[in-house]
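Long-time lurker, finally posting.

We've been working with Agmatinase (Paracoccus hibiscisoli) and I want a structural starting point before designing mutants. I don't trust myself to interpret raw outputs, so I'm hoping someone here can both generate the structure tokens and explain anything notable. Sequence follows.
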Amino acid sequence: MALEDAKTQVDQAFTRDSLRGLSFENAFGGATSFLRRRYTKDLTGVDVAVTGIPFDQAVTHRPGARFGPRAIREASTLQAFDPPYGWGFDPLSVMDVVDYGDMAFDYAAVRDVPARIDAHLGTILDAGAAPVTLGGDHFVTLPILRAVAARRGPVALIQFDAHSDTWVDDDPDRIDHGTFLYKAIREGLVDPAASVAVGIRTDNPDTMGVTILDAPSVHRDGVEATLARIRDTVGDRPCYLTFDIDALDPAFAPGTGTPVWGGLASWQAAALLRGLAGLDLIGGDVVEVSPPYDTTGATAIAGAHVAMELIALLGWNRR
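Top reply, 14 upvotes:
Generated this for you. Predicted structure of Agmatinase:
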């Protein structure tokens, strides 16, 4: 296939006849599944299932991450023509990747959302697929980790973020984007000794044993030294990766609910993600893309690239 196939290819989210391969329909038209993958609820034989959780409530400053999955899918239409540059292989040709669509929930029944996320991700995991989730605020990672740990036990966590999200929260009924990791560690979902948070640049009195590689240390020590510390911390443990888009400096991703200056540049994030190839990654998410606060679309573009990198990481050992 090549670009001339745009003459006949359209709506590949519904019309493509294979779960593998690139798509060449016009970027400005057609149904906007992630990377023009087939929309399907049939997970038979699927290697990676991309899914959206359009949920946010009571974020620190600027709501709107519920629109993140839609914006990330639209931004991804620019990436569907070619393998991701620099990887040396095409993950869409070595794995069956689908867009599993968004999770359904009643917006007026917020208390039901955690269990629905847990069950939604459980369906993907039980089918043998690795989940790549488009959020949504950072709360969604907690019930995702519940689903993962129920099947794999406590996992190592690699967290890209401006905030460590381990503020004390002992109320099991609170749904809070800023305390997901505190609860995940308290519930035994995450092994803090094998976990690392990258890009942090806010104070927190207790990081609960998670290794903190703050943004100044990344800037000072460089990508390779940072990667060495991540690898030493995670080791050969099964790991889950969560990427809060505010790990990036607002200059690169202004469309987020909690922007903090001094963050990672997009090139640093790209190099760090690629440097994780070979780890035992079992899934990941990108959260807190809030497109109403970025009319340029740069934040959604960054989110789409993060999701693509997650897919490439999942495909590394299958290449």
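Before you design anything, note these points.
The chain has ten helices and eight strands.
The CA atoms of residues 40 and 100 lie 5 Å apart.
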